[in-house]
Design brief:
Layout lengths: L3 E4 L2 E3 L18 H20 L9 H22 L8 H16 L15 H23 L1 H9 L9 H47 L6 H42 L4
Length: 261
């Protein structure tokens, strides 16, 4: 993005996509890479510690862990996959939700302040190399190779002539677009939300420190106020996007296992 002239002698360069390309810290390792590994450590430590000494009357850590588990089990896996088949997939759905949530929330934590999934490569890798193989594998395993292809691409009940158009569209959606759109949803939300926070924060700082003029300082307060407001909105979106990623993954598994299209 180009520089925007705000006052005479002062220029404001708004944040852009280049601000997400963080330089390597050492040996080609970047901050998002470290955050990905750290998220795994945090999640593993949380569940291990909170379940180490289970009690009938749970403490705060056990209560939170049980709540998250119950939410993933009954609110996502069971609803989307079905009560007959959902149990083996609870760990996957729980892990997906926790992993995406922690990496999203990094964007609001001081010092970290970067949502890992604002880099398209991370959600795309999670979608293509974890979710995509799992739901197609279970589909092929249940229905057989030809049966699963028919199950996914030939909806029953349509006129024969329609299948010439419908089958390629279904194949494109189920085998090409689903994993891409799954990744793009969370990436776009994290990228746009973090960029908006950067714009309001950097603009407020510029107006307060650099800009001159009678209205610059009062306007900086408005900019900071919007930054605070958008922080709460972004926190909500981060949770929603983690839920959407996990629930859609469960939905794909349920659709692959279902007897009907």
């Amino acid at each position: 993005m180009g520089a925007l002239v705000v006052t005479e002698g002062s220029t404001f360069t708004p944040p852009g996509a280049g601000d997400f390309d963080l330089p390597p810290i050492f040996l080609g390792i970047t901050k998002p890479m470290i955050l990905i590994v750290l998220s795994v450590v945090i999640i593993a430590a949380f569940f291990l510690i909170s379940s180490r000494k289970l009690k009938v009357v749970p403490g705060k850590g056990q209560f939170l862990a049980e709540y998250v588990y119950d939410f993933a089990r009954n609110g996502m896996a069971r609803e989307q996959i079905g009560s007959k088949d959902f149990r083996p997939y609870i760990p996957l759905v729980l892990t997906l939700f926790s992993f995406v949530l922690v990496n999203n929330v990094f964007g609001l934590i001081p010092f970290f302040q970067f949502p890992t999934f604002a880099h398209i490569g991370f959600p795309l890798a999670l979608s293509l190399f974890v979710v995509y193989p799992v739901y197609h594998f279970v589909g092929f395993k249940r229905h057989g190779f030809v049966g699963y292809l028919k199950h996914q691409t030939v909806p029953p009940g349509a006129p024969a002539a329609i299948y010439l158009l419908l089958t390629p569209i279904e194949f494109l959606q189920k085998f090409v677009l689903n994993p891409i759109t799954l990744a793009i949803r969370v990436f776009a939300a994290m990228f746009a939300g973090h960029l908006i926070l950067l714009v309001f924060t950097v603009a407020g700082e510029f107006l307060l420190v650099e800009a001159s003029g009678a209205i610059a300082k009062p306007v900086s307060i408005i900019s900071f106020a919007f930054a605070i407001l958008m922080t709460f909105v972004e926190a909500l979106i981060q949770v929603i996007q983690a839920y959407v990623f996990a629930v859609l993954s469960a939905n794909y598994i349920g659709a692959a296992l279902a007897e009907d299209h």
